[in-house]
Each structure stands twice: as C-alpha cells, then as structure tokens.
Specification:
The protein is α+β, with helices and mostly antiparallel strands and 583 residues long. The protein has four domains: 4-229, RepB DNA-primase, N-terminal domain (Alpha-Beta Plaits); 245-340; 347-457, no CATH class; 465-572, no CATH class. The strands form six sheets. The protein has a five-stranded antiparallel sheet, with helices on both faces. It has a five-stranded mixed sheet with strand order 16-17-18-20-19.
C-alpha cells in the first residue's frame, strides 16, 4: 500500500473510528479477477489485505458494510455459489451504511468523451449540488464524492434499506441532471454493493501509477432525513436486486422483436434514433450505453415497457451483443430512462413560455398569462401558486417568487434564473418539485419570459442583505427545535447536536449548521466568509461562549442575535422559557 495511514484515516472517518466494523458488519475488499474478495471484520484487517501484493494498485472497497450471513442467504436465493470469496455482497445484505458515494469519471487521454473534461469540471459539478459533500477523493480517473452520516446507519429492516437506497439514488439523479445540462454523463454508483477506490492506494490503470487521495474534507455530516429533504420528488431507485420476474410488467424473451411499424417510423423521422439503431453514435461505446439510449428514446416516443425491452433485446442480437436475459437489467434501464424524462412540466406550456420570451414587449395581461404558465410548468396549485416575480433593487439585484399565501421562494441573483440547473435547484429546494430539464437554447427564452414579467420593488429594510439574513434566520429557527442554553450542560448538549439555543435574551447558532441548512433549503451557496458578513449585517455578533462537555469546561465560537430582532410579520418566534443567564 502506498500510504497506510491515509487509508486508515479514511476508513476511520467513514466507520466511526472503526466501531461500526465487526463480525456482522464487514468491509469487503475487491480486486477484479486477480484475487479473491476478502471480507474484513476490522479496519486493521482491511489495511493488511490492501498491503498484500495481489491487491496493490487494483483494489476497491465496498462503501456499505456487509453482513456475511445475509450475503450467503442472498446468494442461495439467487442460485449463485454461496462463496464469500466470489461475492462482494448485495443491497439486501448491507449491515450498515455510512453515507452516499458518487463516482464522477473524467475524460482521460481523449477517451470517454461523454464524461466531464477535467478534474476542475468534475469539482464544478459536485459544487452545483444543493448539499455539500463531506469528502472529495481524487482517483486518477476522476473524483469520488461522499456525503457521510453522523454515524453509520444500521440496516435492520426493509424500510430503512429502501430509505438509504432512495438517498443514494437521489444524489446520483441530482448530479446527473447537472451533468446533462452540460451534455456530460456520469456512471450510476448508487447500488449499495458498489465498490470504490481507497485513498492511500495506487491506481495502476495509468503509467506511472496515480495516488488515490482525499483532496477536500469539509467536515459536513448529515442524518438521513436531512439528505431526503433535497432529493428530487420522484427518485425511486431501479428495481430491487431481489425482484423476481413476476415483479415486472414485461417479459424477457430472447427471440423478441420490436413493433416494426413504430420502429420504421422512428428511424425515418428521427436522425438521432436512426444513428442509435445502427450503432453509429460517436458518443456511445458499449452495448449498455446503447441500451440506455434506446430506452430513453423509446419511452420519449410513448412506447410501452414491453415494446422498449423488446427493442433492446432485438438490437443486441442484431449487433452481436452479449444476450441480457435478466429482468432486473431491463428494469434498471427503464427506471433510469424514466427519471431522465423529468418529473414535472408539459410541452405546450413550454412552447408558450419560449414564444413569450422571444417577444420584445410584454403588457400586464401578458405578464399574468406568463405567470399562469410558470405555475403550470412547475405544477404549483392552490396557495402554493406563484402570484408574482419580484425583483429587489440592490447590488446585485435579487429575485423571489411570491406565492398566493404570501410565501417568498428565494431565487437569489439573476444567474439563478439564467442558469437552468440553478433555477431547478432553487425550485426543488423551496417546493420539493423537480421541474423537467430544458435545452439551454430554449431555456434562454424561458428565462427571458420570467424576467419580463418581474415586478420591481424598492429596497427596504427587509430587502437589504441584513434583512434577508434575518428572514433566513427566522426560517432556520422555526424549522428546528430551539434549546434553552442557560445551563452550561444543556448548552453543551445543544452544541454537540448543532442545535440553536438561547442564553438570556439572545439566540445562538453555529455557522456550519446554519450554512448546511441554507444550502439544503434555499440552494444558498455563499462561502463561510460571505455568510459571516451577512450575519454581521443582520445585527448578529460573534463571540466565544462557555459550556460543559462531559463535566469538563469548554468554549466554542458562535453567532448570536437579540431575540427581539427576529420576527415574522410582526409576530415573535416562540422561544423556550428563559432563565437567568449564569454569568
């Protein structure tokens, strides 16, 4: 191993200093066909395996800890050899889950043209997501990004298993949507049995070998509920590995043929479909990539699941591809294709928005019609419907959507309207709705339509950076449980959980937790320094506060603001009963 200490630190970060790893929750080390899989019941055992010659330069680890008994059970159910040396585990045999792992490959030596071009581009992609990663690892061929839990989540029931599968798949979909805005591709590594590279090892795919290393550790930690807040509305992962043939609404027949009349029309009317069917696409390399492209296009054309599956089977046979006869394979292609179609929006509304964005002027009646179309496009109803688009004067100006019940959905600066992925994230963070992707050329006109129906509002105390920060603080505090921190031990308990707390007539927050919340709920990406400046402009002050941790005196820097400065529409927030400050 190149750097045992780096690998050890990485594993300890993932697995609660090693406490999560034991006989029933093991780290799986995988090395292609060059060596047997090794199931390790401690971090030290895993490090010893990675130091062996057969595993150097070509080894991976399973992010989710595996239960060996469950894995043997699953192998038997699937009719596979119940030999752990030949198995790396299954989603159904996961014992504990430390968090989400995302693999973003880049173009290396001019190959893989569909991936992001450079490491810088891959980092840009990760930073567009509404929730910051805990770790970023450079692998030589790209990046691995991790979103880690406070502690590894034990998987002891089906509900928890499905919840973590949704989280892993949802983060992948968020990244995929950003990538597609740039016409990039990323691999789906949301499968809980997926393996990734270990920092401290070497990647020998390249000459000379490249060190795998952690390049960013933000310290961010999450609970599963916080992850779910930012996920797309429809993020059900592909079919379970355990799904049976009968669970699918299609039949896999190796002699299948697609609906020929539909096929002929698709080839005749759609040049892209024709290139896909004849395997002449320059951006696709493998049969699997062609399968997914066919699934995307067939579903977009309105074909049924059975017709789409038949087309993929027939296409593989026509071009001498290896037959795929597992229903799960086709179920996963269909699920990915359906997720790519987008969750919300309709073509007629989009056409009207594009048309209005092309016009030179817009009367008040047209403005109302445009807002109605925006509501239809986003599918907001009742009190959630948008009433107006407000432009607040400032340097730079900021934009908000006002709903019928008076709620303001924060879009931020104008780039959040101009850039389609930022607009989608802002809407998703505020409403939980993921609107469909729109081509950049069309979106420019949609954005213009939105900008032309804005109502200008003179800047007032609530529209200043300080006023907006106070509003954001109210949202943050109303969303969480505010603790009474007048007792030093209670204050310590609040700080350990990152909870806001009161001391006397002031409420205290930590920058890290506030920044995480703003990123998840408001798609707010301001830096730590920018956030501190906004808190200062809101009237908050920073200082060191005393607390007790396990009976020992300690101090921590927090930001605090007078309770009387925080209110919503003239109504004060409900605070804990105050006690005399113990100073």
């Amino acid at each position: 191993m190149h750097d045992r200490n780096a690998a050890k630190e990485f594993f300890e970060t993932l697995y609660s200093d090693g406490d999560a790893v034991h006989d029933k929750a093991q780290i799986v080390i995988w090395a292609h066909a060059d060596a047997p899989n090794r199931w390790c019941s401690s971090i030290e055992e895993a490090l010893d395996v990675l130091s062996m010659k057969a595993y150097q330069g070509k080894s991976y680890f399973g992010l989710a800890l595996q239960n060996p008994d469950r894995a043997i059970e699953q192998a038997k159910l699937k009719g596979e050899k119940p030999d752990l040396k030949a198995r790396r585990g299954y989603a159904q045999s996961v014992a504990a889950w430390p968090g989400v792992g995302l693999d973003i490959d880049i173009r290396v030596d001019g190959k893989n043209k569909r991936y992001p071009p450079t490491i810088k581009d891959a980092l840009w992609l990760v930073n567009q997501l509404p929730i910051k990663p805990s770790l970023i690892v450079e692998t030589g061929g790209g990046l691995h990004a991790y979103w880690l839990m406070e502690e590894a989540v034990p998987i002891d029931n089906t509900a928890t298993l499905e919840q973590v599968r949704r989280a892993a798949y949802g983060i992948y979909l968020l990244a995929l949507n950003v990538a597609r805005d740039r016409d990039w591709a990323i691999d789906n590594t949301s499968d809980l049995a997926r393996v990734l590279r270990v920092p401290g090892t070497l990647n020998e795919k390249y000459t000379p070998p490249v060190e795998v290393k952690v390049i960013e550790d933000t310290g961010a930690r999450y609970d599963i509920d916080a992850i779910e807040i930012v996920l797309p509305a429809n993020c059900a992962p592909p079919a379970n590995e355990s799904a049976s043939h009968a669970d699918h609404e299609f039949v896999v027949d190796e002699d299948a043929a697609p609906p020929m009349r539909k096929l002929e029309l698709a080839i005749e009317m759609d040049a892209r479909f024709a290139l896909t069917w004849t395997m002449r696409r320059k951006d696709l390399d493998s049969h699997s990539e062609y399968d997914l492209s066919l699934a995307n296009q067939c579903i977009a054309l309105g074909w049924s699941d059975q017709e789409t599956v038949d087309a993929m089977i027939y296409h593989r046979a026509k071009h001498n591809g290896t037959p795929k006869l597992r229903p799960q394979y086709y179920a996963s292609r269909l699920a990915l294709a359906r997720s790519a179609q987008g969750a919300v929006g309709n073509e007629e509304v989009l056409e009207r928005l594009v048309e209005r964005g092309s016009s030179q002027v817009q009367a008040s009646a047209e403005r109302e019609m445009t807002i109605d179309d925006i509501n239809q496009f986003i599918e907001l109803n009742g009190d959630e419907k948008i009433e107006s688009v407000i432009r607040y004067a400032g340097d730079p100006p900021t934009y908000k959507l006002k709903t019928h019940r008076g709620q303001l959905l924060n879009l931020g600066p104008v780039r959040s309207i101009i850039a389609p992925h930022l607009f989608r994230e802002a809407i998703a963070a505020s409403t939980g709705m993921l609107i469909k992707r729109v081509k950049d050329k069309e979106w420019a006109k949609v954005a213009q339509a939105i900008l032309r129906c804005t109502t200008n509002q003179d800047i007032g105390p609530d529209a200043t950076p300080g006023g907006e920060m106070r509003d954001a603080l109210v949202d943050y505090l109303e969303d969480l449980t505010i603790k009474d921190g007048n007792d030093l031990d209670d204050r310590g308990a609040a700080l350990r959980k990152g909870s806001p707390f009161t001391v006397g007539l002031r409420v205290h927050v930590t920058v890290r937790k506030l920044r995480d919340w703003l990123r998840m709920h408001n798609a707010d990406r301001r830096s730590k320094n920018e956030l501190c400046q906004s808190l200062k402009e809101a009237g908050a002050e920073t200082g060191v506060i005393r607390y007790r941790n396990g009976g020992k005196a300690a101090t921590k820097r927090t930001w605090s603001i007078e309770i009387d400065m925080l209110e919503r529409d003239g109504t004060a927030i409900k605070w804990p009963d105050h006690k005399e400050t113990p100073f």
